[in-house]
Amino acid sequence: MKVLDPNQSYTFSKIFELKVEVDELVKDFGYTFSRKLLNLPQYQGQLNRLQQLEERITAILPNVLLSTEIARREILIAPVITDLVYYTNAQLRIEYSLKVSEQLQGSLDYFLHNHHHVIVIEAKKGDLDYGFNQLATQLIALDQWLDSKEINLLGAVTTGNIWQFGCLNRENKHIDQGLESYRVPEDLEPLIRILVQALTS
Asked: What's the confidence (pLDDT) of residue 89?
């Protein structure tokens, strides 16, 4: 029993709206799924802007309403990503358009790549569970789109103040959703260290 109608066209955002179970969704594309503690490695070097980033976010939060996705992206997500680019010299694309097929297409909120590493970040106002559905299809699309099988794929879905990760094992066509969540600003340091490590390892 397929979740997606093979005769219909879908975008990543439309898949989010379907509110289906993620394991059934990825099965449509020939992938398997599980949830587990990812224990993602963290960068161990010096991060010379980390304290300033935490102070800036903490200082501004009392004065901002985070009731829209764009507010969360501007205040919470963009500062993290711009510092990530600073630390890694990764290439950043925002609202990056991607089309692999009629069922794997749409815009990636944040697409970062550096040598043999790719991170895709999906921003949501809320509903991280179904937001992960959207992220999973984006990871599958990238797996099929990227030429080199040596490129590692990491994904994150975030409301800005909460981040969750997903990994795609390209050889086994398997997606793991991390059971851990990282809060901003409370868990900003491990979050940044995971993201930096993913682009520099």
From this structure: 97
pLDDT of residue 62: 96
Residue with token string 């981040």 = 163
Place of tokens 């993620």: 22
- Nearest residue to 124 (alpha-carbon basis) of 113, 110, 145, 112: 110
Residue 66 near residue 72, CB atoms below 8 Å: yes
pTM of the model: 0.96
pLDDT in tens, 135-191: 999 999 999 999 888 889 999 999 999 999 999 999 999 999 999 999 999 999 999
Average pLDDT over the chain reads 96
What string of DSSP letters covers the chain?
Answer: --SS-TTS---HHHHHHH---HHHHHHTTT-EEEEE--------S--TTHHHHHHHHHHHGGG----SHHHHIIIIIHHHHHHHHHHH--EEEEEEEEEEETTEEEEEEEEEEETTEEEEEEE-SS-HHHHHHHHHHHHHHHHHH-S-TT-EEEEEEE-SSEEEEEEEETTTTEEEEES--EETTTTHHHHHHHHHHHHH-
Domains, the chain, ordered by start:
25-200 (3.90.1570)
- Taking the C-alpha atoms of residue 46 and residue 116, their distance in angstroms, rounded to an integer, is 22
